[in-house]
Amino acid sequence: MIGMDSYVRPHGDRAALLTIDVQNDVSLPGAPWEIEGTAAVVPRIRELVATFRDRNAPIVHVVRLYQDDGSNVDPCRRAAIEDGTGVLRPETEGSQLVDALKPSSAASLDADTLFAGAFQSLGPNEWAMYKPRWSAFHRTDLEAFVHAKSIDTVVICGCNFPNCPRTTIYDASQRDLRIVFVPDATSGTYPRALEEIKGIGAAVLNTQKTIDWMNDGTDPWESSER
């Protein structure tokens, strides 16, 4: 795609960063449900988070939490949780954001707040939210949240593209949001999928180009090099 038309072109001044499932139990080397490649992309996710913080632009850390009885778990994982696989349990260290993304060492997820559907404040213009399934928009108030804050563009990165990031991208598109996906800051990406999401109007940018676009308005969509 060379250039982007006015209907899908992202707006840096109305953008929010969504980090998806960058939690200890699925991100750290040797973690119980380590997702291959996630630890390697955390430094680039951190760069994006730092850029948005510096600009006081909104950041939402989207997380999963699994009750011990499996009652809120995806059906494909429910049996494992019921059988005692202790991952992403509320109020455990494994369920917390990786340290590199926290606004302070004291920032900790509050399961009661998150399960109630509220956006937990972690710092200035920075929140955590809980999603019960793959998409950050499914049975959550994220759509209302972004509209209330006049956000029309979401920048998406995080853990395991085939599941939660991809589903979030498609649900964002269905809500007419403008989308920037950052593949080198997301584990599990692969070339065909990137071409497919470009086909629904998502912009695909690497971390540095995303930072340049946010910081100085550099327009990466005038060139075919993506």
Structure, explained:
- There is one protein chain.
- Helices cover 31% and strands 16% of the residues.
- The chain starts with 14 loop residues before the first strand and ends in a 10-residue tail after the last helix.
- It has 226 residues and is α/β, with parallel strands linked by helices.
Helix-strand blueprint:
Layout: E1 15-20, H1 24-27, H2 38-54, E2 59-63, H3 75-82, H4 111-115, E3 120-123, E4 126-130, H5 142-148, E5 153-158, H6 164-174, E6 178-186, H7 191-199, E7 203-204, H8 207-216
Summarize the structure.
With 226 residues, the protein is α/β, with parallel strands linked by helices.
| C-alpha-based Rg, rounded | 17 Å
Total number of strands: 7
Distance between the termini: 9 Å
Low-confidence blocks of residues? none
Q: Please identify the structural class as seen in this structure.
A: alpha/beta
